[in-house]
Amino acid sequence: MGSSPGGSDNKVERLLVIDQNPASAQALGLECLERGIGVIMVDNLCEAVRVVVDAPVSLIVADGALLRLTPRENGVLFERVAPGVPVVVTVRADAPLDQRVAWEIAGFRVLSRPVVVEELLEKTGVR
Question: Which domains are delineated in the chain?
Answer without folding.
Answer: 14-124 (3.40.50.2300)
